[in-house]
Amino acid sequence: MIASRGFRPLCLGLAFLLFWCGGAAAAETLVLSSADIFPGSTPEDGGYEDLILKAALARMGFALEIVHLPSERALTNANEGIEDGNYSRVAGLERLYPNLVRVPEAIMEFEFAVFAKDPTPKIDGWRSLAAYHVGIVTGWKILEANVVGTRSLTKVGTPQALFEMLALDRVDVVVFDRAQGLALLAAGRHREGIRPLEPPLARQQMFLYLNRRHAALVPRLAEVLREMKHDGTFGSLVRSVTGSAP
User: Which of 5, 36, 177, 213 could connect to 41 by a Cys-Cys bridge, CB 3.0–4.6 Å?
Assistant: First the structure.
């Protein structure tokens, strides 16, 4: 009887210890979402954005789990706290999504370009899109803000659907990140003749946003990203995916 009484508190203590350790382990994993495609992000988490954030968080003692979602849903989920954050995004989204906090060190720079089949479109700035039927991906906020006043605007859920729409002549042009667009075209079929036009509409630095419950991590994570750029890790990870420096 005495042994039994002693055994029960011991079991309860062990159970509490196991529960506490399990909770601590779970707290060491951040779940981030991305809507980007190769070379930035991949379903196998092997894009340069994926690798950069894995390395940065590892230096802080965190593991990274990546969830690949459509653009608008990725932002909404991060704002609601379903995932811990979302990348890569333009600055200023905290005005639209008040629960998001931007890590102020850029992950990458995007070149927002117009892609077309017909070589005749003359594009020079956002306003020059007014003469055309244009396609964009829903949730790309810089495009939703600037692609206005066009003959028509069609929004689709994925980059693949965007370029398929252009290939089928359902729009005159589409607007997308140049590097991701070129990679998608290289991997696709029946998209011959589609190319990015010059000059690009804009070049913008792109950032990670965290849900505000992780705001305390932001200063250190920005510092780690700067350290990675300084010590060569950043460039090395980009080269491992693209073969060239960022």
Answer: 36
